[in-house]
Amino acid sequence: KGVSPGPGETGLHPLAVPGVLEPVPLFCSSPLVLMLTGVLVLAGLISIIFFVSGGSHFQDPLFCVFVVFSFTSVVDLIISLEEDGYISGFVEVYVREGEPYLRTAHGIMICYWDGIIHYGLYLAMIAAIGQRKSYRNLGLFWLGSLMMSIVVFLLGNLIGKYSSDLSPAFLLNLPYVLIPIWAGVRLFQQPKALPCLSPEKVAEEQRKRLYQRPQDMGLVLVLLLTAAFTFFRGMV
Questions:
Q1: Sign of the CA dihedral 71, 184, 230, 95?
Q2: How far apart are CA 99 and CA 170, in angstroms?
Q3: Which residues, in sequence order, are CB contacts of 90 under 8 Å at separation 6+?
């Protein structure tokens, strides 16, 4: 009745779209056709979101980025679940013909991470944009996580088991390299949300020892464990 949809109410659900890639092999299993199909699906998704939302949320172009990437996150989650045998019949042909490197250990793990952690971040940032709230901190966490994932993903694919089987569908990963760079510039340009602390409170916190600051202690422990695990993997 003339009421524009709110955040997340674009009338679409990502789970309804991934299967669109599966019928393609009925006509042609060419990797080039699969790549073009993926591009058309994403372009159609952007167009539908624009017309359904009336362009109201497009004042912040990152809204479109987060919506499209949330769609691909659900596709990644479906891929990982299918490769682990929890579901079947969704993207088997696409993975086999277009991106077989998604079946590797690092490919499946990155798909899980993107489909769970990044998807949650996308939903939170989309809601923040709809409510005109700051999402700078969430955005920076997403940016760092995505960049580290794509570095591991691309290097693993270029020098790994399937390096000789790369197809044109591999170019679908190019937006994950270029868009985060542009998004990072916009995120760093957003004003910081500074805490309302008096100079006395800041000085009091700085005088505390490390064991009296549980959050800082936890961060140090996580970094030490990560460094030790990385060193162990390098030695093995």
A1: positive
A2: 7
A3: 18, 19, 22, 78, 82
In this prediction, residue 109 carries a pLDDT of 92
Please answer whether residues 110 and 153 qualify as being in contact, where contact means their C-beta atoms are separated by less than 8 angstroms.
yes
Query: What is the reported pTM?
Result: 0.71
What confidence score (pLDDT) does residue 84 get?
Answer: 93
The owner of tokens 């890639």 is: 21
Q: Which amino acid is at 224?
A: L
Let me know: does 22 contact 94? Beta carbons within 8 Å: yes
Q: How far is residue 51's CA from residue 165's CA, in Å, rounded to a whole number?
A: 39
Are the beta carbons of 21 and 38 closer than 8 angstroms? yes
pLDDT, tens only, 97-118: 778 888 998 899 999 999 999 9
Taking CA 176 as the corner, what is the angle to CA 80 and CA 140, rounded to the nearest 5 degrees? 100
